[in-house]
Design a protein that fits this description.
318 residues; alpha+beta; 4-stranded antiparallel sheet; globular
Length: 318
Amino acid sequence: MRRGISSQTNSRAFTLLELLIVVAVIGLLVSILVPALSSARRVAKGTICLTRLRTSGQGLILYANANRDALVPARLPKVDDDHWRFRLSDDRYKYRPSFLTMMESQVGLAPFDEPLASKDLVDRHGQPGDRQNYSNEMYRCPEVDHWVDERNGAFGYNYQFLGNARLRDSTDINSFKNWSVLTSWVKSPASCVAVADSMGTAASYPVNQRGAYEDNLWGQSGTGRTLTAKGNEGFNLDPPRVDPINGEMASLKEDHQDRTAVDPRHGRKANVLWVDGHASSETLKSLGYAVDPVTGAVGFEGDNRLFHTKKIDEAWVE
């Protein structure tokens, strides 16, 4: 007698309604997860930016220790094509470097793959000696990683109070407006802004008028200077209160008044390095900036106590 084993497989297809439910659930999960992932990425970038600022803070302190307590200027003054070179950590020289180059070279971070010692020289990328792009990621904010021009950089310096090396008299190479400033002159180093995420002169304009970032476009003359563009002249960070008549701004001319300001690019907060070397995330309001509630433009009548070396609300004047 032969015994056979038989099997029967029952299969059942999904109905259209069930498929629609599955698709809806997947869509709901995606709508929940994507913002969470975006937020996580934003937080991670903000943390990296803070870490880089803390490294810059070490350079700020080391520079002062090596220069009789003097803080760095925002940028060495322009006299001619060869004056005011700075010796980098690798013994090469850079023409008219900004504060970032002078600070971070103290901790061995080379800013450029080919630093130039004269304005007349051009590097392998076609960039002139006074407008080179940073090649080291430590000089950039990961939220705006393409802001690489040393003039239109991501970070600005409290130059009015800590180191304004612009010349009062172009014929006198030592007629600095406010440099050198000693660390010991700062009343409260832990509550005096040194460096922060910078918006550039776009801060003067309504949010809907601010344009895209421009760098020096590989050294072509006359480019990367649009006043409404984000990051324009970002290395100069103006404090909340500025005097449009007797004071100083990043771009104060007879026909226009354009100030820079801190950029709240990290979830409506900006990363800030303080003179004592610590870093934190702050809002425009907490730093003292006056922002038009309708247009978003940054005004002139803010509070300077967190920028002033004496911790008072006073604008810097010439």
